[in-house]
Amino acid sequence: MRKANPGTPAAVVLVGYMGAGKTSVGQELAQRLHWKFVDLDDVISARTGRRIAEIFEQSGETEFRRLETEALGAVLGGLKSPTVLSIGAGAFVQSENRRLLRSAAGRIVFLNGSPETLMERCRQHGARRPMFQDENQFRQLYESRRNSYMKADLCIDTTRLTIGEVAVEVARRLGLVPRSNIAKDFPNEV
Length: 190
Prior knowledge:
The chain is an alpha/beta fold. The protein has a single domain (11-189), classed as Rossmann fold (3-Layer(aba) Sandwich), CATH 3.40.50. The chain is built from 8 helices and 5 strands. It has a 5-stranded parallel beta sheet. Helix 2 packs across helix 3 and helix 3 (52-77) packs parallel to helix 4 (95-103). The protein starts with 10 loop residues before the first strand and ends in a 5-residue tail after the last helix.
């Protein structure tokens, strides 16, 4: 594993709406930086033995949010090496989660996109998302959450970028890869 620079954050946390690419970009970024990758939804599923959709269906959103905050605290409390963390679309909206993330010495990156692009990505992947009911509801929920997402340290519009291009932009803008090393560490994206 590559040694982290003294100014390297403990974690890079990817936030944003459904379809923003948090998991895909997170995996790509972690691989290229030689960091650990954690998807908070996977942690919640492993801890409960249930898929996220099942938790919503069987226990409701309030219980899911409680489990989410509990899992986030456990992940952040157990950071031992630089980590890229992807969190669910509603996690950063919760003030307690924002507080936990701010206290963990991480950098928070909002992966944004046009509602049309985000909706199309959700449809392409076909996975049922508990909070995606119809187009009108999708847009309203996006707008209601956008102000919370804007509290991130950095915002990157993913609308016209590939997963690799977003990973490069995150690394570059956070100073995780010196400009002179971008071509070497991210060879297919420059």
